[in-house]
Amino acid sequence: MKNIYKSTIKRIASLIALATLMAIPACNDNPDAYEIATGKPTVFYVRLPDVLSSDSLVTHAFMGTNIALIGENMRSIKEVWFNDQQAVLNTSFITPTTLIVQVPNTIPDLVTSTIYMVTESNDTVKYNFGVDVPSPLLNSMDCEYVADGGTAVINGNFFLPMDGDSVPEVYFTPNIKAVVVSATITKITVKVPAGAGVGPVSVKSRYGSTRSKAFYFRDNRGMILDWDNTNASGGWRSGVIANTNPVGISGNYVRFSGSLDDTKEAGASWNEDGFSFNLWGTANNRPQGDLFTIDPAKAVLKFEVNVDKAWSSCALQMIFTPWALSGTNAYIGGDANQPLLPGAIWNPWAATGSFKTEGWITVSVPIKDFTYNRIGEKLAKGTEVGGFGGLTFFVFNGGIKGTPCTPDICIDNIRVVSAE
User: Fold this and answer.
1) Torsion angle of the four alpha carbons 306, 308, 311, 317, in this order, in degrees rounded to the nearest 10
2) Average pLDDT of 252-275?
3) Which end of the chain is more exposed for a tag (fewer CB within 10 A), N or C?
4) How far apart are alpha carbons 169 and 201 in whole angstroms?
5) Is 1 a member of any domain?
6) Residue 32 lies in a domain
7) Beta strands in 192-326 (DSSP E)
């Protein structure tokens, strides 16, 4: 009887406790959760959010810049627009007095130099603020070597037309204006003008003019091999030289051709005669030392390539060697007498299974990427100063399986230039 009584009392107590909890408003498990406020915001000023620049008030900023709106009732804002472009709001960066936001990266169609803040009740509060569009950004050319009258493609951003025109202006060294065939915000196609020379290309748009630094047209700086004035003689393989089928872009070039099949046993696919050359510094009578003096961290290996027959197996391997090394390929695999040397790998067919170009293109490989072995494994250390006195190219393995093929891989104008 006592046990039944005690059990009943416990059940009644539990029911009373549950009813009490249901009657009490629920506790806020996250008291700092964002809640949009009522009313309208007031912006006192705009500054940069960087602590070191917090005293700098700004009235305009470039696209992509983070800015802080300082004022009152900033949590009443549900949308922010710069001109006719909506910004992305992150409530983690909004307090009652501060709203940090990034100026949209899209160029406005309608420029009003105004920030529009839309509240929860759909009221709009305006604040005068300008959005700056950068001058043209020039990143690369599809091919840095194009004959006069040929078509060249420039890649970058902010290629806006000049006022009163439908396209930006393009100038080749020495200040020769080109005919623009077509232009988008990120790509310009031009006809190379007669007399265009070696040097930077300039693009002039509505918001300024920029000379290329990332590339030179017909770049002849830091030339290592062009097979007209410089070659790889003295190595076991100096390369098969050609200048037709396809037509060269600046005289002779080296052609890699034959059968490739990385599905066979190791080594069986290495067609050394058809797919390699060895430039050994000492054997080629190059000056003692490295082939270039640019800081490897700021240097890039460039060359032009034309793949006119489909390539779908093995990778283009590039290995720098010390000036004194010659008469051996042991550095490719490593042995007791010659340790493995790091290299770079280019296998553009890997993404789609097959690769072919429409004419010549320029390939860029940062020197800092010379950190791999022949099967694509990253090594602990890359090529260092003192190890750039020779250069070997060969097509073999790469660590990715492909399909048998018989490509033509034509290469010209191997050079090292500054990436800056």
Assistant:
1) -20
2) 81
3) N
4) 11
5) no
6) no
7) 201-205, 208-211, 223-225, 240-242, 253-257, 276-279, 299-309, 316-321
